[in-house]
Design goal:
Elements lengths: L1 E4 L6 E7 L2 E8 L6 H9 L7 E6 L17 H14 L5 E6 L1 H12 L4 E7 L13 H6 L3 H24 L4 H13 L5 H7 L4 E6 L8 H6 L2 E6 L6 H4 L1 H13 L1
Parallel strand pairs: 3-4, 3-5, 5-6, 6-7, 7-8
Antiparallel strand pairs: 1-2, 2-4
Helix pairs in contact: 2-3, 5-6
């Protein structure tokens, strides 16, 4: 395990590093997750293994520190991740990012273009969520922060189920709540618009069973490759390791 101090008080982002050749591949998890738990099987798959890989935990999650005094906006996540990558000697990386991590990766590529050469989004959040949305981040957003910290955390952990809860328990409660709120509210311009405007190779993986993602034609028209992956749900890299690994390998060598 390695780490980088990303704030003056010593707050540290940590990652599991796989040795290998360049370009570096940076793996970023989703809300309430941890990159090592979600990506290790895929990152060490024969078609992907051999490149330097950083399985990074965003601040507030997994192995990284969980300060309670951070707003945890998508922009803060991106800037702090960027600082960790700079300290790790990363330049022009291939960034593979799932769900909320995909939203952070889009902002990272827009704000720190020297750090990202290719972007591979895994069923990532591209748009703000309506008030009646039923996703995990919207469910968390439905609480006031004080209520979430008092009792909402326990309710969400129970609702999330054993698999998601296993990594969600590692998250700071303030980090989970505030990240969920900012993810559900989105960015300005939206993550989708930022993605459309990026001048780098971009791929969007999605579960084939869900059909084409919203705005697929617009994504394709802007040069984003939209790729369905069979036999999986939202957690593509866990549900179909082989299919995910081959889709990533193809996207990063196209």
């Amino acid at each position: 395990m390695r780490g980088a101090r990303v704030r003056a008080d010593g707050t540290t982002i940590r990652w599991v590093e796989l040795p290998g050749r360049e370009p570096t591949r940076v793996y970023v998890h989703g809300l309430g997750a941890s990159s090592a738990a979600y990506y290790t099987a895929a990152a060490t798959h024969p078609v992907l293994f051999g490149y330097r890989g950083l399985l990074v935990d965003l601040l507030g999650f997994g192995l990284s520190d969980r300060p309670a005094d951070l707003d945890y906006t998508l922009e803060q996540h991106a800037d702090l991740l960027g600082e960790a990558l700079i300290q790790a000697g990363v330049r022009s990386a291939d960034v593979i990012a799932h769900s909320m991590g995909g939203a952070v990766a889009i902002v990272l590529a827009a704000r720190h273009p020297e750090l990202v050469r290719r972007l591979l989004l895994v069923d990532a959040n591209l748009d703000p969520l309506p008030p009646d949305a039923s996703t995990g981040s919207a469910r968390i957003r439905s609480y006031r922060e004080a209520d979430f910290l008092a009792y909402g955390w326990d309710e969400v952990i129970e609702w999330a189920g054993a698999h998601w809860a296993a990594t969600m328990r590692l998250a700071g409660r303030e980090a989970l709540y505030r990240s969920a709120v900012h993810l559900a509210n989105g960015t300005r311009p939206t993550m989708r618009q930022l993605l459309l405007d990026l001048p780098i190779p971009r791929t969007f993986l999605h579960p084939a069973a869900d059909g084409k993602p919203d705005g697929a034609a617009e994504l394709a028209a802007s040069g984003v490759r939209v790729v369905p992956v069979p036999d999986c749900g939202h957690n593509i890299m866990l549900d179909n390791v082989d299919g995910f690994a081959h889709a990533v390998a193809q996207a990063l060598t196209a």
